[in-house]
Amino acid sequence: MKTLMLGNEAVARGLFEAGCSVVSSYPGTPSTEITEYAAKYPEIYAEWAPNEKVAMETAFGACLAGRRSFCGMKHVGLNVAADPLFTISYTGVNAGMVIAVADDAGMHSSQNEQDSRHYAKAAKLPMLEPADSSEALQFTKLAYTLSEQFDTPVLLKMCTRIAHSQSVVEPGERLEPAQKPYEKNPQKYIMMPGNAIRRHPVVEERTRHLALWAESAPINRLEAGRDHAVGILTSSTSYQYVKEALGDTYPVLKLGMVWPLPEKLLRDFAATVERLVVVEELDGFLEDECRALGLAVEGKALFSPLGELSQNQVAEQFGAAPDVGVSLDAGLPARPPVMCAGCPHRGLFYTLHKLGVTVMGDIGCYTLGAVPPLSAIDATICMGASVSGIHGFLKASGHSRDGNTVAVIGDSTFMHSGVTGLINIAYNESNATVIILDNSITGMTGHQQNPTTGYNLKGDPCTKIDLETLCRSVGIRRVQVVDPYDLAQCERVIREELSAAEPSVVISRRPCALLKYVKHKAPLTVRTDRCVGCKACMKIGCPAISVTGGKAQVDDTLCVGCGVCQQLCKFDALQAGEEV
């Protein structure tokens, strides 16, 4: 029976129908829901790994054991997993292995706009790219077929619009292949130089065979058009924009496999049109490959390599009606992201801003500590970089402590890649102060469990990593825990650790205000007779507080009664509300 599915949900359905047995991923928007949906199938073992590298290595181990496996991540997560990615291209697989990578054109929730197609070419791996939910399901199943047929991991490239949009799919039944026996094969799986050098020619030959397969593959399809003055080469979301804006005006070569490319198919298509135009988001990847084949082609001269495309942009470049769709830059009111009311990070960042310290930031919802009025972060690069970065910052300053610099990192991010930086601090002796923002969940990507929460992906109790013990075990003797709702305690402890003569860790511990099990206090009320309109309460940037008519006002639909703002009011105008 046909049904609507999100693209990510359809990928998970494809995993189920293809007989995937093991899923290991790290959450990252826009890829997260694939694994969350996969975990709903009891036939699939699914887990959150500490990071993407571990997830990919776990999935490889599962395929080596003879079961179909999967790992999912966002584009920057593929950077973390690049080490095993390039080598398992050489080893190949036993059972099928599929790797989903979700790009984020427009940077809706990312620190860059990298184009993952370059990884497919660089790692010499096939990459499939669906253009809707139906293809997401079918391409996932096809990926396992190709993986086992060509002895290779297969990349499945998603993007924000395909991952998070709905379209019609027709689910099928699960067909679970028998477990393939594992047989020792040192020449294939032990990538010491003497073996690896013999595997490289195998990879090159495999790429040649995959390119031949792509020539007649039904996922690379030619769609007829009325006017052969222009031919359009496209894929993924860009294909949807082309069809919506132009219909069947021009012939379209829609690619489902974006690496390796079908050389003859491209040449033949170009020969049938007067002008070849590539419509693709981000880099001119297909355009460059066409140009390398000697084809006259246009692309990035018409469409920017920055951000997402739209129906209007496509229509404009081809002289179609300018009112197709809705412009992405329409005059909508600005809605900058802010920390939620009651966010446990707010008090800690207020304290850091008050103390005027330099703050090395990291990846998580706490990155919002960089925006006014908190303005408390100086740099954010990638997962774990705050802890490694403060070590280098202090070493470069000529002394191991400047008394004015801290690193901040979330509990999940610390487990992902922060702990290695802390080991470096202890081992190479910089007296850095690292603040772990422990909100008891992976907040930014939608409340996934992590090794510090005591629960696994399916919500079952599991081993809980004790952050205090872990920090001490790597050589940090000074470890303190603070409640970020207590501003005086935060300031006192941070001052103490900044003046200490050895490295230290401060754990700011308070669960995310949005967690279902967190019981909030009654909303605060304002004594308008005491409020003088000084706006001291506005310095924490809480969305529940505003000033109207020169007086503070609390939105009781947002306020969770955390009391942080009360500590800033010298006139006792903010009062605890009555519990209902």
UniProtKB/TrEMBL annotation:
PROSITE patterns: 4FE4S_FER_2. InterPro entries: 4Fe4S_Fe-S-bd, HACL1-like, IorA, Pyrv_Fd/Flavodoxin_OxRdtase_N, THDP-binding, TPP_enzyme_TPP-bd, Transketo_C/PFOR_II. [4Fe-4S] cluster 1 binds at C531, C534, C537, C569. It catalyses: indole-3-pyruvate + 2 oxidized [2Fe-2S]-[ferredoxin] + CoA = (indol-3-yl)acetyl-CoA + 2 reduced [2Fe-2S]-[ferredoxin] + CO2 + H(+). The keyword Iron-sulfur applies. Residues 522-543, 550-579 form the 4Fe-4S ferredoxin-type domain. Keywords: 4Fe-4S, Electron transport, Iron, Iron-sulfur, Metal-binding, Oxidoreductase, Transport. Binds 2 [4Fe-4S] clusters. In this family the first cluster has a non-standard and varying [4Fe-4S] binding motif CX(2)CX(2)CX(4-5)CP. This is Indolepyruvate oxidoreductase subunit IorA. It comes from Candidatus Flavonifractor intestinipullorum. The lineage of its organism: Bacteria, Bacillati, Bacillota, Clostridia, Eubacteriales.
